[in-house]
Amino acid sequence: MSDLNIVIVGAGSIGCYLGGCLIAAGAEVTLVGRERMRQQIAEHGLRVTDWQGRDSNLSSEQVSYSLDMSSLQDADVILVTVKSGDTRTVAQEIEVHASPQALVVSLQNGVSNVDVLKEYLPKFNVLAAMVPFNVLSKGDGHFHCGTEGSLALADPDNLSQLLIDALATAQLSVDTYDDLTNVQWTKLLLNLNNAINALSGIPLLEQLSNRAYRLILAQAISEALAVYRAAGITPVKSGKVIPQIIPHVLSLPTWLYKIVASSMLKIDPTARSSMYEDFVLGRKTEIDYLNGAIVKLAQQQGLNAPVNSAVTGLVKENELGGASPKLSPQTILKAINSIN
C-alpha cells in the first residue's frame, strides 16, 4: 500500500464503510464526522460486512476518527460523503484547512454537489464519483453493505490512479468515466426509491416484493424519465439495469418480478435506504436532492411532477420525527392522487 493519506469527511454509514474497508486493507485513513459516530467506534471498534461475506473487524485503536476539520491539512485525497445540504459548508472548511494539492472526490447523492465543490474550491482538483450500493448502520460501529455495484468515478485526466489502486486493494471495484453526468442522473432514478422505502419503514427486499409499493416507484421513475426526455438527459445502463425498462419490470406480477429482478440486482434481506436511517435518527433528509431534484427539473421544463412532488411532501412532513411513519401504499397513493 502506498503512503496515500485519505481523509473521509462526513463519515457516516457510507464513509465508515469505505473507510473500514480501506483501513482493513492497510490504507492510511482518517475519518472525520460527528461525535455520535466517534463514540460508537471508540466503544465498539469498526466492523464492515457485505452481502458477499466480507467481514472485517477493526479495534478502536486501528481507527482514526476525528471531529476536527484540521485533520484535512495532510490529506492527499479527500472523500466527501456529507449530506448534500452540507456540501457548501464542507467546501469552505476544505478551502481553509486542506492543501490545494489534495484531490477532492464527491461520493454524494444527487447531481449538483460537484458543481458546488468546484465553485468554492477553484484551486483544487474536484472529481465526481458515485456509490451505487446501499450501506446500513446496524449500530455499535457495524456497517453492512446490502446491495451490489461498483463505485463510479469521473477522471478524464487520470488524477486518481493511487486512489483507485487503494480501493482495489480493499476489494472495492471502480469504473472510470470521462464524464459522470448521465451516470449520476441514472443513479438518481434508482434513488427515487429511497424515500418510498423510508416511508414504508420495512427492509428494501420486503418493500420491493410488494407490488403496490413497486407500482408507486414505477410511477415515480416513469415521471422522471419523461422529465429527462424534455431536458435532453439520456440515462445510461447501470450494471445490468436498463433505465428505460425499470418501470415495466417493477409493474410485473411479483412472482415474475422476483425472477427478473434477481438477475439484475442483488439485495440483502436486511438492506434499507439511507433515508430510513435519517428518519430513525430524526435528522433532515436529502429529499430535495433526490425526488425534489426531479420536481425542480420538471419546473425548469415547464412540466409538473405530481408523483415525486407528493413523495417529497410526505418525507418533509415526517422527517425529524425520530421514526418511519410506516405508510401503506394506499396512503402514499392518496397523497399522489390529491396532487394529480
Structural commentary:
Strand 9 (135-139) and strand 10 (142-145) form a beta hairpin. The protein contains 14 helices and twelve strands. The chain is an alpha/beta fold. Helix 8 packs parallel to helix 12 (291-300). The mean pLDDT is 94. The strands form two sheets. An eight-stranded mixed beta sheet has the order 5-2-1-6-7-8-11-12, with helices on both faces. The radius of gyration is 19 Å and the shape is globular. 45% of the residues lie in helices and 16% in strands.
Q: What is the topology?
A:
Layout: E1 5-9, H1 13-24, E2 28-32, H2 35-44, E3 46-50, E4 55-58, E5 64-66, E6 77-80, H3 87-97, E7 103-106, H4 113-120, E8 125-130, E9 135-139, E10 142-145, E11 151-154, H5 161-169, E12 174-177, H6 181-200, H7 204-208, H8 211-231, H9 246-250, H10 254-262, H11 274-281, H12 291-300, H13 306-318, H14 329-339
Parallel strand pairs: 1-2, 1-6, 2-5, 3-10, 6-7, 7-8, 11-12
Antiparallel strand pairs: 3-4, 8-11, 9-10
Please provide a brief summary of the model:
The protein has 340 residues and is α/β, with parallel strands linked by helices. The chain has helices spanning 13-24, 35-44, 87-97, 113-120, 161-169, 181-200, 204-208, 211-231, 246-250, 254-262, 274-281, 291-300, 306-318, 329-339; strands at 5-9, 28-32, 46-50, 55-58, 64-66, 77-80, 103-106, 125-130, 135-139, 142-145, 151-154, 174-177.
